[in-house]
Design brief:
The complex is a heterodimer of chains A (about 375) and B (about 425). Chain A is of the alpha/beta class and about 375 residues long. Chain A has 13 helices and 15 strands. In chain A, α4 (about 80-95) links the parallel β4 and β5. Chain B folds into 2 domains: about 20-240, Rossmann fold; about 265-429, Pyruvate-ferredoxin oxidoreductase, PFOR, domain III (Pyruvate-ferredoxin Oxidoreductase, domain 3), CATH 3.40.920. Chain B has 15 helices and 14 strands. Classes of the chains: A alpha/beta (about 375), B alpha/beta (about 425). The complex binds iron/sulfur cluster.
């Protein structure tokens, strides 16, 4: 057995390299800085570009430019940086610019605590942009997940041409751990679909449930990109029908592919009446709690979500169906639980959340389940 | 190429707007440059100047207010063969000031045309960073309380390697734009122009007045000798080639059998400068070499040279779930600051827990077994106490043995540091 030993942030960087990332721009911020440090070690020797932006807004701008020239781009930050990324997240959503954003979450609000973890930004990542058009958010639970999900994130960004978040947490990003490289399960790489049609290139012409084929700025075919409301030709439009179709497609291109976007782990135990739903670092404590509860003769089943957004509604409905009780545990005072309550309406949903800079220990989770 | 103008999208500026003249001069400049259309990209932001990209048949990227230079930099770094032109108004220059300054410092080969017409045309003639204090604008009296900034002066002092100021109506504008584009480095051309839709309705600004303004504050003249230096992208690629060294992940094989293969929770309580984090890594390397799963969390001050330094390590034959410490099996108490940070755990320790306490460190009452060691008396420096305490663990074969410790030291240190650390270890073993 040979193990690697790395923190989650290094694993994100290694995942990016495995995915063929060749451009990084970011601005230092605890607890995400070591992603930048690692990319700065790994990209230049592989002919990639790694830049420190003058601020977070600029870092995202560099990424947008590079992505439009055909690069596979990564940036990394934490909550306060996501706030500054917002205008460019909107741009990347609306103008279908592939990019991967690692958000190593820390305790908010605002500058909050630089070195204390929390799943602070679960709703913010989804809604912190204009228009309400969707993004993809993937939540790793450990270093190995950071590596694997970063490759998935790049694949999704390329295929769906949208920003994809890796919702890490200080407790994953800055915790070093060992894992066996042989256990890694990396998906085959997906690249942006290039435009190969014979007619003139219409940069935003696409099937109603797909992202448009891509050509880079700088290639022999002229490309138009704009942050403004545009028609398929990339020029500003005020035609309500054209606008409606573009807006709808931003949603449908993701919802139509939910079965592929939905990633999760489950431990379904026969004859249990309780399903514990969690994600990220907290799902590890849930596993410990479930093991301890089984030893005490009170077994439960668990579902650990890796895809948080778009909400895997079909999965949640299917998995919850046979359970009498649902317990949701998350490292905030209740963000994702609102989605679960919305989808499983009518089912009793117990919740425990904690926002004090420390991880939720297994004992707290056991208490929540036992006290139902 | 006869013209790069997009005949299906003719300019839509107000009659008499200088932007129209600049559009034509830019087209003339592109014709003179003789670069194929697909080798030029026009990057714009918001405002009337943000319409420029649509009037040309070249690559186009139109983005958020003030951020055009950031997209331009990303494009240029990704594809150094591109001729990248950025248009921006005095509004975009103001809101994107940090990006303008950064572009000046970097000296990337971009051409920035700042279309200064002294106000925000599109939103109703509000004052901008270049509006004179005595102008009448759409922001009531606010501009009277500020002074306008001198764009050329600022970018020159920030390091732009080509800076010029010219009337947007000057017949020499296309030649000036050619010189700016041909310059290899960051070029800023400030054009002064009329916003007939807003500004000149209430202010006496004519082509002649603009000429007088330029006479009073002459153009820096293009190439700024003192700011000449290598272009950013070229410099970046050269440095990356020289300095870059890819680091492979750190891999450890199972080499040893653990003294015991139970789960361990190790807490090292020390202070900044005591190499606590390094010692924590050693315990982890040793554990992996013994075939265990490991995790480590470190807690130290943001001001890294002061305060506590605490490492919490889990070693387990099972996959590690929760990475917090629940019932420590080993506590190394090496400084009062570190102990203070985890004060509460001592009372909760089990009688099986092994606590090593340096003689000078005070710890709260605890049911655990406590061994006191006077490292100072053994002439071991404080910076080596963490390492020395690992040697004590190896002596007792708690968590690790001597072979594992030596292996861990070898994997982490170069020969010189390894030999030095073995001197400390040998004082114990
Ligand atoms: S508002 Fe001013 S800047 Fe805009 S088009 Fe009219 S004259 Fe030109």
């Amino acid at each position: 057995m040979a193990s690697v030993f790395m923190e989650g942030n290094e694993a994100v960087a290694r995942g990016a390299m495995a995915a063929g990332c060749n451009f990084f721009a970011g601005y230092p911020i605890t607890p995400a800085t070591t992603i930048f440090n690692n990319m700065l070690k790994m990209l230049p020797p592989r002919d990639g570009v790694c830049i420190q932006g003058e601020d977070e807004i600029a870092s995202m701008g560099y990424c947008i430019g590079a992505s439009m020239a055909g690069k596979k781009v990564l940036t990394a930050t934490s909550g306060p940086g996501i706030s500054l990324y917002s205008e460019h997240i909107s741009f990347a959503i609306g103008s279908e610019i592939p990019l991967v954003i690692a958000n190593v979450q820390r305790l908010g609000p605002s500058t909050g605590s630089a070195t204390r973890g929390a799943d602070s930004d679960i709703q913010f990542m989804r809604w912190g942009s204009t228009s309400g058009a969707p993004v993809i958010v993937l939540a790793p639970k450990d270093a190995k997940d950071c590596l694997e999900l970063t490759v998935h994130a790049f694949n999704f960004a390329e295929e769906f041409r949208c920003p994809v978040f890796i919702a890490s947490n200080k407790e994953i990003g800055m915790t070093k751990e060992s894992f066996d490289m042989d256990d890694l399960n990396l998906p085959p790489l997906v690249e942006r679909t290039p435009y190969t049609g014979s007619g003139p290139y219409v940069p935003f012409a696409a099937d109603p449930d797909k992202s448009p084929p891509f050509l880079p700025i700088g290639g022999t075919t002229l490309v138009r990109q704009t942050s403004s409301t545009h028609g398929p030709d990339g020029y500003i439009t005020i035609d309500p029908q054209v606008i409606a179709a573009m807006q709808q497609r931003l949603h449908t291109k993701l919802t139509a592919a939910m079965d592929r976007i939905t990633l999760y782990e489950e431990t379904m135990v026969p004859d249990t009446d309780t399903l514990v739903i969690s994600y990220g670092i907290t799902s590890r404590a849930v596993t410990d709690a479930a093991t301890a509860l089984a030893a005490k003769g009170r077994p439960v089943s668990t579902l650990s979500l890796k895809t948080l957004w778009p909400v895997p509604e079909a999965l949640l409905v299917e998995k919850a169906a046979r359970f009498k009780k649902i317990v949701v545990i998350e490292m905030n005072l209740g963000q994702y639980v609102t989605e679960i309550k919305r989808i499983l309406c009518g089912k009793p949903v117990e919740f425990y959340g904690q926002m004090n800079g420390t991880m939720i220990p297994p004992a707290k989770i056991m208490e929540t389940i036992e006290n139902e | 190429m006869n013209s790069f103008l997009n005949t299906s999208r003719p300019p839509v500026f107000c009659p008499g707007c200088t932007h129209e003249r600049i559009t034509k001069s830019l087209d003339a400049a592109l014709i003179k440059m003789g670069i194929p259309d697909h080798k030029t990209v026009i990057v714009t932001d918001i405002g009337c100047s943000g319409l420029f990209d649509t009037f040309f048949n070249v690559h186009a990227l139109h983005g958020v207010h003030g951020r055009a230079l950031t997209y331009a930099a990303g494009l240029k770094l990704a594809d150094p063969s591109l001729n990248v032109i950025v248009t921006m108004g005095d509004g975009g220059m103001g809101i994107g000031g940090a990006h303008v300054l950064s572009a000046c410092r970097k000296n990337m080969d971009l051409t920035l045309i700042i279309l200064n017409n002294f106000n925000f045309g599109m939103t109703g003639g509000q004052y901008s960073a270049t509006t004179p204090s005595d102008a009448v604008v759409g922001s009531e009296f606010l501009n009277q309380a500020e002074i306008p900034m001198d764009i050329c002066g600022v970018v020159e002092s920030a390091g732009a390697s080509y800076v010029s100021r010219i009337s947007g109506m000057d017949d020499g504008l296309s030649d000036e734009l050619v010189r700016a584009m041909e310059h290899e480095g960051f070029s800023v051309v400030e054009t002064l122009g009329l916003c007939t839709g807003r500004y000149t309705k209430r202010n006496q600004l004519t082509p002649k007045v603009i000429d007088q303004m330029i006479e009073q504050r002459p153009s820096p003249g293009g190439v700024i000798e003192k700011n000449q230096r290598p272009e950013y992208g070229n410099r970046y690629r050269q440095l990356a080639k020289e300095k870059g060294k890819f680091s492979d992940p750190f891999v450890v094989k199972k080499l040893f059998d653990m003294p015991d293969d139970r789960r361990h929770e190790v807490v090292i309580l020390g202070s900044a400068g005591m190499r606590i984090v390094t010692a924590g890594d050693m315990v982890c390397f040793a554990g992996i070499s013994g075939g265990l799963n490991v995790s480590i969390k470190n807690d130290y001050n943001i001001t890294v040279l002061r305060g506590q330094s605490v490492s919490e390590i889990l070693l387990s034959p099972e996959k590690i779930g929760y990475t917090g410490i629940e019932s420590p099996t080993v506590v190394l108490a090496l400084s009062d600051e570190g102990v203070a940070r985890r004060q509460k755990i001592f009372a909760t320790l089990s009688p099986d827990t092994y606590v090593l306490k340096e003689a000078s460190v005070a710890i709260p009452d605890t049911p655990a077994q406590v061994e006191e060691i006077d490292f100072k008396a053994m002439k071991i420096k404080k910076t080596d106490w963490a390492l020395a305490s690992l040697a004590v663990l190896a002596k007792h074969e708690i968590v690790l043995n001597k072979d594992m410790l030596v292996f861990a030291l070898k994997s982490r240190f170069n020969e010189k540091v390894f030999n030095l650390s073995m001197e400390t270890v040998n004082k114990i073993l």
